Amino acid sequence: MTDPLLISTAIMIGLLGSTHCIGMCGGIAASIGLQRHRSTLSNTSFLMSYNLGRISSYMIAGALLGSVGALVATGTSGLILRSFAGFMLIAMGLYVGQWWLGITHLEKVGGKLWKLIGPSASRLLPVKTLPQALLLGVAWGWLPCGLVYSTLLWASSAGSWQQSALLMAGFGLGTLPAMFTTGLLAQQVKALLQQKWTRKLSALVIIAFGIFTLPLTELISISH
After folding, report:
1. What burial class does residue 203 get, using C-beta atoms within 10 Å of its C-beta: 0-12 exposed, 13-18 middle, 19+ buried?
2. Distance CA 201, CA 192 (A)
3. Phi and psi of 76, rounded to 5°?
4. What single-letter DSSP state applies at residue 185?
5. Helix (H, G, I), strand (E, B) or coil at 200
6. Residue 183: which of 133, 139, 142 has the closest Cα?
């Protein structure tokens, strides 16, 4: 069973990292949620379908990488994996705060995959039906993103593919408020979340999560 604290952490990472998500996916969400020929209720349904597809892709990726992580999440290897997860959270915080952008190199990993998916995703625009919105979200969930990739690496330390998938679902849910309101209140939300103090505070909280994740006590006892 996944620790509720881990789920809360995943949700908070998504919520606090939303300043980055707006830049990566906000344009798509806004284009879906600001169709003037549709009612507000209809636009909401399209946004929900898009985000459901996006979060589903996060969960699939989490399950796949979590299966690999589960194979080594025991004994000393498990401590190493947890340490790696903690450092990834710290790296995420530094990334969100714009103090260090090293995790952007992770985006190159998915570049080749996106070259295959991207053209198909583009053909789904403009979105006219709910299935189109869902499929666009599924495709967009594989967009190369340092924040998503670093969260995936962190989630892979959970110990099982089920828990990793659940953590990625939590991360996706955390991004939902910003992505959802970006589609409906695009410029207002973007202005708030991209303020410097918002980014810095979010970054510090994520770094704190990372430090808390590090198995410092176990590592010290082993060293002695």
Report:
1. buried
2. 13
3. -60, -35
4. S
5. helix
6. 133
What are the two backbone dihedrals, phi and then psi, of residue 35, each rounded to the nearest 5 degrees? Answer: -75, 115
Report residue 35 as tokens: 């169709």
pLDDT reported for residue 1 = 46
- The Cα 62–Cα 188 span in angstroms is 32
* 125-140 per-position pLDDT tens digit: 888 889 999 999 999 8
Burial of 34 (0-12, 13-18, 19+ CB in 10 A): middle
pLDDT confidence of residue 194: 63
Which residue carries 């989630």 as its tokens?
A: 155
Question: Average per-residue pLDDT in the chain?
Answer: 80
- The 3-state DSSP class for residue 151 equals helix
**Length reported for the chain:** 224
The rounded percent of the chain whose pLDDT value lies above 70 is 78
DSSP-assigned states of every residue in 113-154 = HHHHHHHHHHTTPSP-SHHHHHHHHHHHTTS--HHHHHHHHH
| Cα–Cα dist 19/101, whole Å | 14
CB 59 within 8 A of CB 172: yes
- Rounded to a whole number of angstroms, the distance between the first and last alpha carbons of the chain is 31
- Give the residue-averaged pLDDT of 87-103: 86
